Amino acid sequence: MSVAGVGEFGLIDRVTARLSYGSTVLLGPGDDGALVAAPDARVVASTDVLVEGRHFRRDWSGARDVGHRAAAANLADIAAMGATPTALLVALCIPADLPIEWAEELAAGLAAEAATVGASVVGGDMSGSPTLTIAVTALGDLAGRTPVVRSGARPGDVVALAGRTGYAAAGLTVLSRGFRTPRLLVEAYRRPEVPYPAGPQAAGLGATAMIDVSDGLLADLGHVARASGVGVDVRRDAFEVPRQMRDAAQALGVDPYTWLLAGGEDHALAATFPPEVTLPEQWRPIGRVVAGAGVTVDGEPYQGVTGWDHFR
Amino acid sequence: MSVAGVGEFGLIDRVTARLSYGSTVLLGPGDDGALVAAPDARVVASTDVLVEGRHFRRDWSGARDVGHRAAAANLADIAAMGATPTALLVALCIPADLPIEWAEELAAGLAAEAATVGASVVGGDMSGSPTLTIAVTALGDLAGRTPVVRSGARPGDVVALAGRTGYAAAGLTVLSRGFRTPRLLVEAYRRPEVPYPAGPQAAGLGATAMIDVSDGLLADLGHVARASGVGVDVRRDAFEVPRQMRDAAQALGVDPYTWLLAGGEDHALAATFPPEVTLPEQWRPIGRVVAGAGVTVDGEPYQGVTGWDHFR
Q1: What is the pLDDT of residues A124-139, one digit of tens each?
Q2: Where a domain ends, among A141, A173, A207?
Q3: pLDDT tops 70 at residue A311
Q4: For A211, which of A36, A222, B262, B281 is 20 to 30 Å away at the CA?
Q5: Is residue B267 marked as binding?
């Protein structure tokens, strides 16, 4: 049955029936607004939107995958501020012929990804639209920590990375060339593995700047460099090309470093730390903050594509 | 110039340049997340989405009007919980050929409406899309008040209304028939006048249930009746047909009570109060909560259209 068949309120009932609520949810869906605990007396909030054909394709990702990815993109933003996610709100715009199951599975994916960090889907809105669109807002709590912004990097700081880069971009290239394997890469594109706890951990360690790697590592470090008024130099030898990525790169005729350095959507976290901080295992040093401007690789401007602009 | 001409980051810069921030904003746009004060240690959150062709038309409303209305729809939800709005986040999906000025004016409208209640636009996301879509999330603070939900109405309670109904629906009918006047009605459709302070006021007075009238008064009271397990009876003589509405109804061959009782999008607030509460001037009694189920008008089922389903 399509969503037009059950109507707006029928669909909302069917989708919210899939949800469960963590301890931060004081009032869930079904009223004019949700009520979420904000024990820190400040709330971190971030919004990300996914548009079909631009951020996902239904033939490349299942509904549940899209739910995981939509949630991950937002939850990672909360983590990148040094906060723990508490809640998601979801605006869903759907073509009338969308199968109900697709919307239900999407909700299940959103809820499952949120549950991995103890957060819940607490509300949202639905509308018909010719374009399938998913706008998610995430909320989070800092538990007294200082938020880690993009503008605090200082020359001499160590640049470190938690999580992986290039996997999602490699998976996307694989799919866009008509292949379905290697599974590791395709699955990484469909459901990013985000190192959420590394965000609050970095805040606790005194990270001077942090960002969610969504546009591509070099592009996102560029945002940090610009906001902080510094330069960033990344060491290429800090990145090892995993076997499956190397094989796929060879088969597809791609430089795997384009994936590793410029591929987005794995939602790794990149942060800068004062040099005296002892980095835990999750945080792998990949470069240095330097005086100047812009991002270099081994001291040289990077020659490849560096990131993604959603209008170009 | 179109949005494609300046690119995603250029457009974000131009739009955020229009914004200013109230005292609840601890960190505004430009980072992975915003940081908003939540002095109550709980945060009310609500999301509403507007899709071009379904919720607005660019030939019927200016960009600034659409911004006002998108903000109002969300801010009213916060007020309907008994809270004071603090912040908006906006996901904007725009066709590449949209003039930049349209996006800038939209942001100005969103910010101006938020400013009327001391709230600010603190963040968002932008993407290209074939369908112009605006998803807004509003946050609010209860200042220690108990949230007013839909499920607390009890038989014997007084049903009261703050704000007006039927104006936006009348304005929409006027526009859809190709007219531009009466201005009062058309302007009411373009920019709803929401009685925001009446929300926290009702919470303070001990309202047992409250809802934002967005689908239509009878439909929204139906949500309250269903959630509370009660019936609601509305008195038709509690509604006076304003002169311009009467004239327009006559000219267009419409029963003006269809607008008053079933027209949505004015974002009035409807609430139920224990009978002993002395209602202030802003809250006009319009009916009674009764034992039973459903919504009646003068004790009888209403024969007209009662509301709006976004998929039908």
Answers
A1: 999 999 999 999 999 9
A2: A141
A3: no
A4: A36
A5: no
